[in-house]
UniProtKB/TrEMBL annotation:
<dbReference type="InterPro" id="IPR052557">
    <property type="entry name" value="CAP/Cytokinesis_protein"/>
</dbReference>
<dbReference type="Pfam" id="PF01841">
    <property type="entry name" value="Transglut_core"/>
</dbReference>
<feature type="domain" description="Transglutaminase-like">
    <location>
        <begin position="175"/>
        <end position="231"/>
    </location>
</feature>
<dbReference type="GO" id="GO:0005737">
    <property type="term" value="C:cytoplasm"/>
</dbReference>
<dbReference type="InterPro" id="IPR038765">
    <property type="entry name" value="Papain-like_cys_pep_sf"/>
</dbReference>
<dbReference type="Pfam" id="PF16472">
    <property type="entry name" value="DUF5050"/>
</dbReference>
<protein>
    <recommendedName>
        <fullName>Transglutaminase-like domain-containing protein</fullName>
    </recommendedName>
</protein>
<dbReference type="InterPro" id="IPR032485">
    <property type="entry name" value="LRP1-like_beta_prop"/>
</dbReference>
<dbReference type="InterPro" id="IPR002931">
    <property type="entry name" value="Transglutaminase-like"/>
</dbReference>
């Protein structure tokens, strides 16, 4: 009996082009043999099973097709692509790279699949997604909006857009291990984090800027919105701006996105709601306490917006960029004055020039103000709020008032001081906690310092007299090594650990 010609690489696309949509199932161990998945007489039943195999990242399956083999190539490809585009299959769509198959005139088919990442990488991704989602949702009172914004802000401030990666830039593994990747990885990470948080979303593939592009739709209270984390990430001369975020593509409508994106709109939820339009004026901004300080897309002046009420206030009539904040002072590049480093005090309303040189990439790290001045990174020490003095000045107040004051004094605080504030809050009665209206600020600080807090607690728990002393020191060192260098500078217990290590 004659054998039909082999069908070679039906979809040898760019990884993004070959991706589609889907809910994630935990990765299984690599298969030991090629499984036979059954006999099928129609494509719908076949694709349901094929999708299940793909969720396990199966690399090869065999099956028997008992239906008509006329135009099998086109029919199979069409059915597979249609299945990939269905809601619930987004993650398969986003991670499938290529497929090929051979078949005989008897209907015996071998389907070979390749993915953007390996099984080991997928296992790593699953673990990190759970960890990140846990870190981002440390506050039990967070709304779904808070969670969506936390995901957007996490991605934008922790990764940079780049194709220059050691592993494929299309996969989240590069994004999570090298902190850089392309739009496909951005959108897939958002999708997985939303899934972990119980928020409905889609992984969308289309075009933007004349190139293949990926982003998300997300649903809040039954209402759909468009979200492009890649295009919310800011760059300057090819460099990622780190702390600064724009929200031009945050919870926007189809009409807004349609200005520079194209996609098969009929396949995805329609976004028409404009209730978050207040964020779309933020061209470059940062969160600080209960407000967002930003450069407006309309006039580039410096504004302040309250995160809870959305009330806006114009602070300056000079154009601002590269914004950073510390205490009561907002630092920025004054584009109305040659890009010189300027400072605006929100209490005195005074605008001053800090350094009469053009600057970019302004940021605050601990008690340091850092900025790029004509290609040279400069650093200036900033005055720190006297946290412990603040504790002493409020001893006459009620316990709740004291904790409120301590939380308000957490700007640039040592990690151990953050722990002390948490202990003070936990010691309050239920009724007293109700009066600590700024507890969310403590949660935000704890979230940012989560690894440092874990390390500090492990160092504090070391008992030199314990039989497990060596193990305790090793575990504390392991925890400390995971703390970002900028936060290690804010830990007084580092020296304690070094002294313990010297005794071993």
């Amino acid at each position: 009996m004659a054998v039909a010609a082999m069908m070679i690489v039906v979809a040898e696309h760019d990884a993004l082009a070959a991706t589609t949509s889907g809910a994630f199932v935990h990765v299984s161990q690599a298969e030991q043999s090629v499984p036979f998945i059954g006999e099928f007489s129609n494509y719908n039943e076949l694709m349901d099973v094929v999708m299940d195999e793909m969720r396990q990242f199966r690399s090869e399956v065999t099956f028997k097709y008992t239906g008509s083999l006329n135009n099998f190539n086109a029919s199979f490809d069409g059915a597979l692509q249609e299945a990939l585009m269905k809601p619930g299959n987004d993650y398969i769509h986003g991670t499938l790279s290529t497929w090929r198959y051979t078949y005989s005139s008897a209907g015996d088919v071998t389907l070979t699949l390749t993915y953007v990442g390996t099984i080991e990488q997928e296992q790593f991704v699953t673990k990190r997604v759970k960890e990140i989602a846990s870190e981002l949702t440390i506050d039990p009172n967070m709304t779904d909006f808070d969670k969506v914004k936390a995901v957007n802000d996490y991605i934008v401030t922790n990764v940079a857009y780049s194709r220059d990666t050691t592993t494929t830039p299309h996969h989240m593994y590069a994004l999570l291990t090298e902190q850089k990747a392309v739009c496909q990885a951005y959108a897939l990470l958002a999708y997985r984090l939303f899934e972990e948080m119980g928020i409905e979303s889609r992984y969308v593939v289309g075009y933007a800027g004349g190139e293949l592009h990926a982003w998300n739709t997300v649903q809040l209270n039954g209402v759909s919105y468009q979200l492009d984390t890649t295009w919310n990430d800011l760059f300057y001369n090819g460099r990622d701006l780190g702390d600064n975020i724009q929200y031009n593509y945050f919870l926007v409508t189809n009409e807004q996105l349609r200005r520079d994106h194209t996609w098969d709109e009929a396949r995805y939820p329609v976004a028409t709601d404009t209730r978050y339009a207040m964020y779309h004026d933020i061209a470059m901004g940062i969160e600080h306490d209960d407000d967002v300080y930003y450069s407006s897309t309309h006039d580039r002046f410096l504004y302040k917006m309250n995160k809870q009420t959305g009330v806006k206030e114009r602070l300056t009539t000079v154009r601002a960029a590269h914004i950073a904040a510390h205490g009561d002072t907002i630092y920025f590049a004054n584009e109305s004055n040659n890009g010189f480093l300027s400072a605006y005090n929100v209490n005195t309303k005074q605008l001053t020039t800090v350094d009469a040189v053009p600057v970019t990439n302004v940021r605050v790290r601990g008690d340091e103000l850092q900025y790029d001045a004509n290609g040279t990174m400069k650093t200036t020490k900033l005055a720190q709020p006297a946290l412990r003095q603040t504790f002493q000045t409020v001893v006459e107040r009620s316990e709740a008032e004291r904790v409120v004051a301590q939380i308000n004094a957490l700007h640039g605080a040592k990690v151990e001081d953050v722990i002390a504030v948490r202990e003070a809050y936990d010691a309050l009665s239920y009724e007293e906690r109700l009066n600590v209206m700024n507890v969310k600020k403590l949660l935000v600080v704890e979230r940012k310092m989560r690894r440092a807090i874990v390390a500090a607690n492990r160092i504090e728990a070391i008992d030199p007299q314990s039989a497990k002393f060596t193990q305790q020191v090793a575990m504390a060192r392991l925890a400390l090594d995971r703390v970002p260098a900028t936060q290690r500078k804010l830990m007084t217990s580092v020296r304690v650990l070094e002294q313990f290590e010297a005794r071993m």
